[in-house]
Model the fold of this input.
Amino acid sequence: MTICVTGGAGFIGSNFVLDWLARSDEPVLNVDRLTYAGNLENLKEVDSDPRHVFAKGDIGDFDLLSDLFSRYMPRAIIHLAAESHVDRSIHGPADFIHTNIVGTFRLLEAARAYWAGLAEPEKIAFRFLHVSTDEVYGSLETGDPAFREDNRYEPNSPYSASKAASDHLVRAYHHTYGLPVLTTNCSNNYGPFHFPEKLIPLCIHNALSGRTLPIYGDGQQVRDWLYVKDHCSAIRRVLEAGILGETYNVGGWNEKANLSVVHALCTVLDELKPRADGQSYAAQITFVEDRPGHDRRYAIDATKLERELGWKPVETFDTGIRKTVQWYLDNQAWVNNVTTGTYQRWVGKQYGN
Ligand code: NAD
Ligand code: DAU
Done:
């Protein structure tokens, strides 16, 4: 048996592939277009592992996907490939429509054709697991209850609107064609291989290179943080035991204001790699222009996943952020490699720079 992972060279995808191969003998067919966010260096641990088959390709390429599916016969598709950065979606939404909506549509078409041709036991066992985000639910105010699976969809950015569209397509393929689908909607991840355009890795990278730590607006926007390995375990659990057609919210009950997240990572950096001048890295914090349409608060109610499937996260924010800072300190070569070339041009376009 084989599973197919799309976007397996990205942040969550590469963590998922590495965890999967560390826990199971089942091979992984990894389909990734290797955009700026995809990096085979993330997977060097499984470079010579015959259980990892990498195929460079676009999820919008129906013929390629059909060929790969008929050759490798996956029992499940874990769909992670996406354009994932909200700021980039504000500057240029087209890639988000191309990959997150049209790409997901073509992937669903290829999956449906493949699944329809399977014989009975394989057809019943097949799963299409769509990995999505809490951002589809919109923004909460202080005191509002956390997002549940039955919350209305109110996406506010081009990114979240494109993910909402993909969620709806996945749902429609279940209701219309009977495709055996599962959807997860997860909160903000952090951990190893996180591209340094997102808040936590950007601030660790900027802190160590003596740059400012840009805080959008007043820094009181709240995100609900989950260590990436806990997201991977949730995906595995939903794949194993999720009810077909259901959606599952994934989160670690770790709501934090952005400013306190940046202070927390500065405190760990101060301890593990103190600044030469004895000052705290927090001195580099700088308030900059806000993100347009910035959602104020996200919070996930993960009760359904915890009660029905028995999933629990392992890391607290304190343990997770310490591991993350240590990983970036230990992997400066990775950071240097991904922050050359096009990265520099993008950073120049960020708000306040
Ligand atoms: P990422 O940007 O780090 O990685 C995305 C991967 O998809 C990259 O390897 C990229 O090369 C690949 N890709 C992009 N377009 C492609 C295409 N057209 N065809 C094939 N491959 C393509 O993203 P991530 O943070 O790892 O997120 C993975 C998934 O999880 C996304 O669907 C995202 O919406 C979802 N998600 C992310 C978070 C988070 O906090 N990062 C939280 C909840 C859900
Ligand atoms: O909630 C899940 C989502 O989390 C995922 O679906 C997205 O793929 C992922 O990118 C993430 O989206 P966010 O917009 O929440 O992540 P980001 O790291 O870009 O920003 C986190 C918060 O920090 C947000 O409120 C904006 C703020 N921020 C971000 C950057 C990059 C800053 O204040 N300064 C910054 O430089």
Notes: Residues 84-86, 133-135, 187-188, 198-199, 202, 214-216, 221, 223, 258, 291, 298 surround DAU (ligand 2) (CB under 6 Å).
